[in-house]
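Feature request, filed as a ticket because there's no other form

It would be nice if the structure record came with a short human-readable summary line next to the tokens. Right now we just get the raw output. Example of a typical job, pasted below so the devs can see what we mean:
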Amino acid sequence: MKIADCLPVMTQLYLSRIVDSILKDDVPRGDEARLREQIRQNSKELVSTSRIGDVLRLELLDHGERILIEAILNSLLVLPDMAAGEDGLFEAVREFETHVIAEAESEDAFGFSDSRSIDIYTEVLKVALDDKKISRDEAALLERLRRKIGVSRHEHRLLEAKLGAFPKAGNELHSLGEFREALKQLQGMGVVLFCNRAKGGAKAVLPEEIAPAVKEILGFEMGPEAQALLHESLNAGQLYRALQAQGLPVSGSKQKRSERLAKAGVKPSEILGCLKIDELTDLCRHLPGLAVSGSKAGKVARIIGYFDSLITKEPEQSNDPRAVYYQYLEEFAGRDNKNLYQRKLIRHDRDMESGFEEGTRYLFEVKLGLELIDMNGSDHADGGTTFPNGELLLWDNKGKESIYTFPKAHFDQFRRYIRESTRRVNVFLVVVPAYSPEARLQAIRLKHATPSDTDVALIAAEDLKWVAENWEAMSSTGTFYLEIFNATGILDRARLEERLALLLT
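Raw output as currently delivered:
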């Protein structure tokens, strides 16, 4: 979820926590509308890497607090939309803590470990834990030692539990009260947003604009599903070398080797670092859109970025085959062939346009509850529906990898659709991934170039989808009004929110 998705479903208390994280004490706060506007106006500061680095100073926390904060953030990073209800998030944290303690107590916890390395690391870890904190310097020293003597990150956590220091002294689990306090602390930092009026129940959200800075601080490279896909793209010999470099057992099938690397917490960068540069080049060549040139470090970074950016979404529960196209509407709009190929939603690049069109038709018909009109012939808009007075709303999908500029060829195409319609076109929507300032001017020009005085509006696919997901919660009648789209120029999120509030409540 983006910050813009969160703000409408947050009330004053939770908005105030975010505003307090970015504004000085002497700045007046105002009501909910004012708070939302203050966050929008200061969004660059809110997502600033330097600001997040300043507030998320994990080395200043005591050992137990640090483990809890990291567990909350890591749990959010691997969830769809990086969002979860409070109960589900607390359960994920408890499950993580319980699993580490149980494994540390098992007889074979260190069955594959080098006993001498474990003994050395244990003694250094004991010293670091003497004051109940592991400072930044101590953490850096432990990381260097861990790598030097071949102790995995997973073994590090197990040793903390073995020493009675995970997640707190005496291996005591964090309580619900401590979890809620940590979640409140993250809100006060302006890192996690709490959407208490979200559809389906209140959710804690790590916004996608803030996530990159959090990943950098935590050393998070990708989630478990993405890492499994990375392992799949490597051969058994490459996984063998990665295990060997970490001092881990190398026997077994490719699947067993993959599972062992994941369990040991070996980072993707460490696995890819074991590959030769020509192997990395070959891997880049087989991943859509990745450049093959550059240094070894550059190739490793690009491969990690590729797998980390793969999207995980909860399946749309529907018997309608178009539902999955709606689910990935933004990816179809942006011609994101990387994710679409990976999810097996397309077989050829040409499939992206049809997927975009079908997802949009599903949105109007199923999500907005509108009856679609038949589009006869081959030269027509991609879809349409009818106003109560019989006039039309037509739309056309224009997928693009970059910003849509509204070229003259499209201007002429849309003007022809409007002029040749047997019924007056009240509104013509152009659904795009994003738009340039020039595109807005072209929309205005097109309105005045049509004898029917048709409103011409550009709308981003993600904003159209936001309308589809949120209009019912704002409606007092349960009926969607097409007049919401009755505008010329840009229908951005702020304008749509205003029109929804005006026409539906």
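Something like this underneath would help us a lot:
Strands lie at 83-84, 193-195, 203-205, 383-386, 392-397, 425-432, 455-460, 489-490.
The domain at 354-504 is CATH 3.40.91.30 (Restriction Endonuclease).
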